[in-house]
User: What shape does this take?
Amino acid sequence: MAASVQLGDVRTWYDERGEGEPLVLLHGGLVDARFFDDNIDALADRFHVFLPERRGHGHTPDVDGPITYDLMAQDTIAFLKAVVDGPAHLVGHSDGAVVAMLVALRRPDLASRLVLVSGGFHHDGLMPGMDQLDVDQVDGFVGDAYGEVSPDGREHFPVVIRKIARMAAEEPAMDRSELGAISSRTLVMFGDDDLMTLEHTIAMYEAIPGSELAIVPGTSHFLLREKPALCNQIIVEFLTTEPVPTVAPIRRAANRQGDQA
Assistant: This one.
């Protein structure tokens, strides 16, 4: 069921599927909710899934000014309050994962569990050269898909690309220590050949208290499309079960001792 809601100066388009606990899927940069086509059925079998499209993406029009993670987090908080009407599980891919992290930091009361797929906490964690977007190349790759649904028209896409290119070169810029304030149970999930370095991935996993780590073998930044069945299984299991008592805890044992000190 597709609808739109006015959130400040942004007319946000969203779809809804399924029943159960609320789950918000946050797409990556320069794509839209269709990115989750191979994931939505598995998630909607268990959850009431919301698929908002952020400013300048998909069916949601662009607005004057830059696109920033801060603005997108504010938009998402407004969406949770106005549409979801309370907390939800947040599953974000790429830019959507960064937005989910910021929401969890600013409004922990609105973030149940987090699944952070292929999104880092600082732009310096990108593989070399990945912070530079070629406008013409990106336009040729996904511009037609943008034009199929955007109310701004196909010709506006280079404007959005340049906004995202600026953001990718400068943001996010969180300090690793900031992640220690995330209180939501969190799954950090990456492909083994992703856009972020493995060192950055591990730093993120170690910085978020009690987080869990999934490296999906043989995949890239597009792991949700490359191995959807496996990714769906990992995500659904994380969101629907409690942590198991591990036989030989090491990092978690140290964390528990630190909590008791």
